[in-house]
Design goal:
- The protein has 120 residues and is α/β, with parallel strands linked by helices.
- The termini are far apart.
- The relative contact order is 0.19.
Length: 120
């Protein structure tokens, strides 16, 4: 009887170890990247952002006046007016170059360059 109990406990231990190994493998998957950009002194900082497919870019307005983050080519929805401290985020899911500007101050321009391939 003890021998059978030991066998069952051994198999249970192997099963738990196998499940744990699967869990650790899933946890090794990298989290999606986020890049922070600032709007300060009437400019986007950095002005050129290079990221991988799947990266979220978050712009935060540090100026005392409203600004927008608006796609020149309408590839992403405009942020609308961002007051001081407001943020806008967009996740880039396809490679390409995405120019943008501020509709309130059109001389303010920037671009996001997305590298890599979409679809996994």
């Amino acid at each position: 009887m003890r021998k059978n109990l030991f066998g069952y406990l051994f198999l249970a231990g192997l099963t738990v170890a196998a499940l744990a190994a699967g869990t650790v493998k899933a946890a090794d998957t990298p989290a999606p990247a986020t890049v922070q950009a600032n709007i300060t002194s009437y400019k986007f900082d950095p002005g050129v952002i290079t990221v991988a497919v799947g990266t979220t870019v978050t712009w935060t307005n540090d100026d005392d006046v409203p600004h927008t983050v608006t796609s020149t080519d309408k590839h992403f929805k405009s942020s609308g007016a961002l007051d001081k401290g407001d943020s806008y985020s967009f996740t880039f899911t396809a490679p390409g170059t995405y120019p943008y500007y501020c509709t309130v101050h059109p001389f303010m321009t920037g671009k996001v360059i997305v590298q890599g391939t979409s679809g996994g």
